Amino acid sequence: MKQPTFHGRVLLPLSVFAEARAGDPLALERVLRYYDRYINKICTRTLYDKDGLPHICIDEYMKHRLQAKLVGAIVVKK
């Protein structure tokens, strides 16, 4: 059976989300890896050095905050 895709990317099965909600650390890691490119994209910033040259980098603080929010939204507290 062909796996469902979105813009050419294979979607995560719902069973992975269910396992992550139950507290499986490997499933949670898989979800974080799946969304890693998207999180990197929205955390990309252009910073300028003292000479005014632009440098594109990832805001690590914001990336960690978004990952923590994602984990908090998935994991159910019992």
**What is the general shape?**
elongated
Low-pLDDT ranges = none
Helix and strand pattern: EEHHHEEH
> What is the percentage of strand-forming residues?
15-25%
Domain unit count: 1
Range of helix content: 40-55%
Output the radius of gyration. 16 Å
Order the strands across the largest sheet as they lie in space.
Answer: 1-2
Coarse structural class? alpha+beta
Number of contiguous helices: 4
Overall strand count = 4
Taking all residues together, what is the mean pLDDT? 90
Give the termini distance in whole angstroms. Answer: 36 Å
Q: What can be said about the biggest beta sheet? A: 2 strands, antiparallel
Pfam family, one: HTH_16
Organism: Pusillibacter faecalis
Protein name: Helix-turn-helix conjugative transposon-like domain-containing protein
What does this structure look like?
The chain has 78 residues and is α+β, with helices and mostly antiparallel strands. The chain has one domain. The protein has 4 helices and 4 strands. The protein has helices at residues 14-21, 25-34, 36-42, 60-74; strands spanning 5-6, 9-10, 44-48, 54-58. It has a two-stranded antiparallel ribbon with strand order 1-2. Strands 3-4 form a two-stranded antiparallel sheet. A hairpin with a 2-residue loop joins strand 1 (5-6) and strand 2 (9-10). Helix 1 (14-21) crosses helix 2. The chain is elongated and about 55 Å long. This is Helix-turn-helix conjugative transposon-like domain-containing protein. Residues 16-74 form the Helix-turn-helix conjugative transposon-like domain.
